[in-house]
């Protein structure tokens, strides 16, 4: 399908020059135009983009604004069913079918980018160790600019690759067979970023239960 171009009235352009200076960052993150307005700043960290469909879709994935257009198309405009982002919206807001106005207002408050800085060839391809190492380097630079207070990782690949570096702990509260990964990142002497990794939202995802867990862990307060 053809992507919708992201509405520049919904996201911030102010820090693009800083973001473009990050080595190995392939796509500009979505940064809602209200993201910096609150002391609670939530960064959603997806896992990866996938090269699926036609040649035009593959060419689309090479564009710097690909992530921006993905969020506009699937999370805000909801042009077609897309399980990963449908379940993400449900999990974040706690409703099965949040209205367009609700989706729009929510994504004005959020930031989003994908951890792996190259597109996967298919949904069956998994990130390599090198992908994950590069991902953590980009993350370390990105958070200096976005300064999130909370990060929600979609999927466990990144968190499980960093358990020693960030002292990642499995939550005692499980959703089905999966336990959230909890860790923190020290940005500077005064700033600690709280991080959680949840089950990937693409399939077999109990969005109501994960919503409850994120709420209980104080990751969604600003969105209520």
Q: What does it look like?
A:
By secondary structure, the chain is of the alpha/beta class. 35% of the residues lie in helices and 19% in strands. It is built from 9 helices and 7 strands. It has helices spanning 16-20, 55-60, 66-76, 83-93, 100-107, 129-146, 157-161, 163-166, 207-216, and strands at 30-31, 42-46, 111-114, 150-154, 169-175, 178-188, 191-198. A 7-stranded mixed sheet has the order 1-3-2-4-7-6-5. Helix 4 (83-93) packs across helix 9. The chain is globular, with a radius of gyration of 16 Å. The two termini are 32 Å apart.
Strand and helix layout:
Layout: H1 16-20, E1 30-31, E2 42-46, H2 55-60, H3 66-76, H4 83-93, H5 100-107, E3 111-114, H6 129-146, E4 150-154, H7 157-161, H8 163-166, E5 169-175, E6 178-188, E7 191-198, H9 207-216
Parallel strand pairs: 2-3, 2-4, 4-7
Antiparallel strand pairs: 1-3, 5-6, 6-7
Query: What series of H and E elements makes up the topology?
Result: HEEHHHHEHEHHEEEH
| Overall spatial form | globular
* Relative strand content: 15-25%
Rg over CA atoms: 16 Å
- The biggest beta sheet, please? 7 strands, mixed
Quaternary arrangement of the chains shown? single chain
Count helical runs: 9
State the low-pLDDT regions, or none: none
Widest β-sheet, arrangement of strands: 1-3-2-4-7-6-5
Q: Classify the helix fraction into a percent range.
A: 25-40%
Instruction: Write down the overall mean pLDDT.
Output: 88
Strands, count: 7
Q: What structural category do the secondary elements indicate?
A: alpha/beta
Distance between the first and last residues' Cα: 32 Å
